[in-house]
Amino acid sequence: MKFMPLFATLLSTLVLVSHAKAEKVPELPLEAYASLPDMSRPDLSPDGKRLAFIKNMEGTLVLMVFDLEKRTNNPIIRSDNKEVFLDWFSWLNDTNLLIGARDVRRDGAIRYTVTRMQNADLSDGVKLTSALKLKESDKPPQFQDNIISMLPDDDIRVLMQLDLKQTNAPGVYRVNPTTGRYQRVLRGKSQISHWISDRQGNIRMGYGQEDGKAFYRLYSPDTNEWQPFAEYELFSADSISVKGFGKDPDILYFTAIHEGRDALFRQSLKGNNKPELIYADPKFDVQGSLVYSDSTGEVVGFAHSNAQDAVVYWDEDMLKLQRSLAAALPDSNNYVLDTSQDGNRYLVYHTSASEPGIYLLGDRKQGTLDYIGSRYDAINESNYAGKQAIRYKARDGLEIAGYLTVPLSRQDKEKLPTIILPHGGPHARDFANFDYWSELLANRGYLVLQPNFRGSSGYGYEFEMSAMQDWGGAMQDDLQDAANYLVQQGLADPERICIGGGSYGGYAALMAVVKHPETFKCAASFAGVSDLEKLVSRRIRHFTNKDLYRAQFGEDDEKLAAVSPVNAAKQINRPVLLVHGTDDASVFVSQSRDMASALESADKEVTYIELEDGDHHLSHQAHRVETLEAFVEFFDKNLKQ
């Protein structure tokens, strides 16, 4: 890992933002975009002397710990993101790093995942041990890495929830990860699936779902009783989301609907106090997590994707730091990821119009800011297209936001081959940050639009709820309207427009060539849904979250069949690409197998690629490369030849 002075390297980069775009932008190797990030998830030890991070080594992800004093690297654990997944890591104290890993197990033809927690002791070299040593009287739970609290006043123990006695009724345990020993704090309760503690590590709330309703139960230390705090129908306007407690254990933060959008509230739990509105954004939902000070333990702000630097602070010290970063790195976004316990050293994630993402290490006493790594080493100001925020009108007059990626090589007034790239979810959204799909396609000469069609999250309750039981309806039309907008703006060649996406985006791509073949010349789907009736019936039969599926899709089989692409295979007259992983636990591979079979039986043009042991997120680098290669080849064949 190379350390170099920031101001000798980065400021020269920022100057290039105003330079004219190159007439000819070199075509980068596909792996520059399709590989997993070169560096990711940096995390400082409490004393600020060690830095844990993930390093991509030719597709193998290695958890590294860099000693900032000795300038030495220690590899801790490796993951291929195929059989073994490194889900998270967090410092227990200055020398012990906790690691949550997930691996795939087999029981005959059935594959399933289990999670385990390990402790890396770095006090003398690297010693890796199991963080939980089960007693003979306890049954081995499938999930063993769910930490509730890091117990700030205890640097060798954590609070965890574990199904040691009854499946789906986790109890709470105090665990010493350095020895693997544990002690029960609270028995599991029926219907409670998640426990929430205050900042002192005391269990204060339980969350659960039953019969289409969600609820929070509040524990009162004064009465030693559990009381109702909130109960609401799933997806209703009465929904809340608890974000956490303040340093004062009687102060609770949560988001709830305010004037049509999620806003942040604070409520004192003593007496009969009403919630106090802390922050509301008139244009966007407030959905991020609380930000705590590592030195004081106080809530200093909260993450908000639409705020400058992605955080709204009310703490004067953090505001001072953000102002200093803005002065040193103007015209950019600088998100403080982590600080040492004394507040001196800190990590920053820096992005700008010319920089897709780098990590910086700051030292407030020395007044330094050093470069420590890039997420994607090969992508820089010479080839980074970035995104432009746009808005267009749907056919019913509703305004839709989206992000447009324009190839750097585009000539004035040139009409380009175009890809509409809807996101998954659909209760999700695209952002202005770096996206390897759109950047790759732009580097290959495609205009790319990522619409936040109705049903996307972040734009208010009514906007998001418009997706409920409306797959294939108005939110599908929003995608054709996006393509028409680009044609009207003189950006897109109307004869060269295709659509592609993953998960819900894959479904939308397939439905686009069913419903709007006059606009879209081809459709590419990764892990897309093709049979809504089958999806809903399987989820309701086999999964505990069946109420969510009933609310989202309804139970009208005839209606679901009418908006399922698999049932319209005979009328599809556009080329189709299907890619799916065999171990996809979110959208089963049968969805693409059935679609491919239906298209082949109808003698349609279809290419089907199956990723052996692939998951829903293209977590394994070889699968990501293979998928993007297939998408680019497919689009080139149908739009450039």
From TrEMBL:
Q: What is this protein called?
A: Alpha/beta hydrolase family protein
Cross-referenced Gene3D superfamilies: alpha/beta hydrolase (3.40.50.1820)
For this chain, one GO molecular function annotation is: hydrolase activity
The record places domain Peptidase S9 prolyl oligopeptidase catalytic at 434-640
Position of the signal peptide: 1-20
Q: Give the keywords, sorted.
A: Hydrolase, Signal
Class of the enzyme per the UniProt entry, highest EC level: hydrolase
InterPro entries recorded: AB_hydrolase_fold, Peptidase_S9_cat
Is Hydrolase among the key words of this record? yes
**Source organism, top-level taxon:** Bacteria
Q: Which Pfam families match?
A: Peptidase_S9 (PF00326)
- EC? 3.4.-.-
Asked if the record carries the keyword GTP-binding, the reply is: no
